[in-house]
Structures are given as C-alpha cells and as structure tokens.
Amino acid sequence: MQLQDILYSQGFGIRRVCSGLVQQGWVQVYEDGAAEPVQVTDSTQEYEPEGLRFRVQGVDWEYHEKGYALLYKPAGTECSQKPSAHPSIYTLLPAPLRQRPNKGAVQGLQAVGRLDQDTTGFLLLSDDGQFIHRMSSPKKHVPKVYRVTTKHPVTQTMVDKLLAGVVLDDDPKPVKAAACEIVEECVLDLTLTEGKYHQVKRMLAAVSNRVEGLHRWKIGSLALPEDMKPGEWRWLSAQDLEKLR
What we know:
By secondary structure, the protein is of the alpha+beta class. It contains 7 helices and 15 strands. The chain has helices at 3-9, 15-23, 95-99, 129-136, 156-164, 199-206, 238-244; strands at residues 27-30, 38-39, 53-56, 59-62, 68-73, 110-111, 120-126, 144-150, 166-168, 171-175, 179-184, 187-192, 211-219, 222-223, 233-235. Strands 5, 6, 7, 8, 11, 12, 13, 14 and 15 form a 9-stranded mixed beta sheet that branches. The chain has a 4-stranded antiparallel beta sheet with strand order 2-1-3-4. α1 (3-9) packs across α2. It starts with a helix and ends with a helix.
C-alpha cells in the first residue's frame, strides 16, 4: 500500500493532505524493525501495512486495519458527537482517531454503548461495526462490572433482591444483576449483561437506595488498567480483545 494511502486509512486527512505531510518531511517510517525511523519524502512509496510503525509530526503510530481502543471516561463528559451540556468524549481523542475513514458511516472510532455524563471508567471505541454490535447487543450477554457508591449502606437483603431481579418503571419483566458483591458499607460491585437507560441507578432505586457515584471498571474479563488516568486512551492489543470475548 502506498504511504499516502496508509496515512489516509489511519485518519491523517484526505490523500492530498497525507501526500503533503510526506513531501514536506513530516513522516518517518520504522523500516525492517529498525530502532529509529527513516525519513520518507515519496508519498507513493509502498509498504506492507500490517505491523507498520511510523512517525507523523513527532508522534509514533502503528497501523491498525480496524481500530479498537479504550478510554478512561472522566466525569462531566458526554458520549455524543453533539453534546448538549458537557464536553464530548471525542474531544479527548487525537484527530486521527476521530478522522479514520469509514464507508457509509460516521468517520472515526465510535463509542461502544454509552455512559452517563457523571459516570466514569471503561469505555470501548471502535470503527468495526461487527465488534460494536457484538459488544453492545443485550443478546450477547457481555458482562460489565460497575463500582457503585451508594447513599445508604448496602444490605444483604438489597443484594439478594438485585440478584433475584427488580422491576423497573418501564418494563414489567424483572431485571437481574449477573453478580453483586458488597465491597464496603456503601460500595458494591454490580455486574450487568444488558444496558437499559440509567439501569444501575434505577435498580438501586428499586431496592430503596441511591447511586452517589458510578464507575465501570471491567468489561468481559478485561479490567481498566490501574495505571490509566481519567481522560487517557490506548489501543487494545490482541490479548485485550481476547479477554473481551
């Protein structure tokens, strides 16, 4: 694949812009596993894209045919391209992730499901439609673990009710927690395999408690890395994707 096409596929702009980046000396390529990148000025030079590493305007990148990333969502952000009251989570991503071309769909990586504006933690992003569907579909039963801080102490009776199923105001069918564990007096870990609107808050309200803080820290068997800080993002590795499955 030509270098300008590789850059285009990775979200660095239209082909004319990508060609200009190369010709103006802003692109370097790590060739044959070299420790340092080599300057390239021919935008039509061809490379095997899989596993290719390159540097654009001083920042190192690696080729990804499909993008899979995680974001540590901070509080006070909205999972929307057109936020209403708070900054969008997409403003936390570098331009190439927001601009990756996608045929017949919105450009860039998209959030897999949504977290409320005041909810923090593990948010998946991808431009792979099948992956997004698989991870967000209630029929796939992908477990998501939430650390819930409550207003009132959590009792075993509350836990038993959450596991047995509670009725929410818009559906007569009880909604069950896949798992529920008391962590501290006013903290519990709640595992869900579906994602209804404000589900955690409504489930806690159904057992006469109230959510004061909500943090998603695990999806599938992949936990949010302990060294990540709110607002940070990183690519998912093949091992990470396996844990999500």
